[in-house]
Specification:
Blueprint (H helix, E strand, L loop, with lengths): L4 H17 L3 E4 L12 E11 L2 E15 L5 E2 L4 H6 L4 E7 L4 E6 L3 H8 L4 E7 L10 E4 L2 E13 L4 H26 L4 E3 L8 E3 L3 H4 L2 H22 L6 H18 L4 H15 L5
Parallel strand pairs: 3-5, 7-9
Antiparallel strand pairs: 1-2, 2-3, 4-7, 5-6, 6-9, 8-9, 10-11
């Protein structure tokens, strides 16, 4: 039976990408026997470390990547549920067989998209230069269709020298870490997301049906963190203890108690311990 040339070209692109990815990551292949899940490789980035005249590869963070041979708009509609539940940063790698290089585009805006609009009926991926994509324009909608921008992250040639590769991978490690933080924020119902250049702001916060159900609890967790830290400062760094700050947060707890009658133990316990530490047990 004749062999389809299109499959052959796809394998060539995938193998070129594999060769380049092996330069800076450990690679695993998902099973594709029954379903195309939209991911060709799971990669764990590594950094090189020399000890006792031996070079060791130290695992860092992981990501998923799909390999394509062009930057045509990509339909991800049939993989929406999988993408929404994926807890790894997703990238698209475009393999250029003529120039022997891999261009990587970032799915960093996926958790922001799903948090802001939920699951669209149709999702398409468009590839853009990074300086053209910000939190103000990372997606647009056309009726039931949503087009999400994947900003260009980096290019890696098959012949790249080691020093240049190290610099690029350090940037990629930082990007993967930031995306992972955003995925965790969404999963934890916090809806506070880091922004990556060229965005001028450091973060963006979403309000709405998801955040509405969790923002009060999230606030109390942060308030509990304040009480733990004020107690630590009073005990371990008394010169930095600010009495006005202490009174402000003490008063805030009392005002919240008037509204909610009973506050959860997660904030009640550190508040009580703080008062004991600063004013003595007789004040409780």
């Amino acid at each position: 039976m004749p062999h389809l040339a299109s499959f052959r070209r796809g394998w060539e692109s995938e193998n070129l990408a594999r060769f380049i990815l092996y330069k800076f990551s450990f690679i695993a292949n998902p099973s594709t026997v029954s379903d195309d899940i939209g991911i060709d490789f799971f990669c764990t980035l590594f950094q090189r470390q020399v000890k006792d005249n031996r070079e060791y590869l130290i695992p860092r963070n992981s990501f998923a990547i799909q390999i394509k041979s062009n930057t045509d708009r990509l339909d991800f509609t049939n993989k929406l549920q999988y993408l929404e539940q994926l807890e790894l940063p997703l990238f698209i790698g475009v393999a250029d067989r003529n120039e022997m290089k891999l261009t990587i585009y970032s799915g960093e805006y996926l958790p922001l998209l799903f948090s802001q609009i939920g699951l669209p009926k149709v999702l398409e991926i468009d590839f853009k230069d990074r300086n053209l994509v910000t939190s103000n324009n990372f997606y647009h909608q056309e009726n039931d269709k949503c087009i999400l921008m994947f900003p260009k992250t980096l290019e890696i040639e098959a012949t790249i020298d080691r020093d240049e590769l190290i610099q690029k991978i350090d940037l990629l490690i930082k990007l993967v870490s930031d995306i992972q933080d955003n995925l965790s924020s969404k999963r934890n119902g916090e809806y506070i997301f880091k922004l990556i250049k060229p965005n001028l702001a450091d973060a963006i916060i979403f309000a709405g049906s998801g955040s509405y159900n969790s923002f009060r609890h999230n606030f109390l967790l942060r308030l509990a963190e304040v009480y733990y830290n004020l107690a630590w400062i009073y005990t371990n760094s008394a010169d930095n203890f600010n009495r006005e700050e202490y009174e402000l947060f003490k008063g805030l707890y009392l005002e919240l108690e008037k509204i909610y009658q009973e506050l959860p133990d997660v904030v009640k316990f550190p508040y009580t311990e703080l008062i004991k530490t600063v004013e003595g047990s007789h004040s409780i």
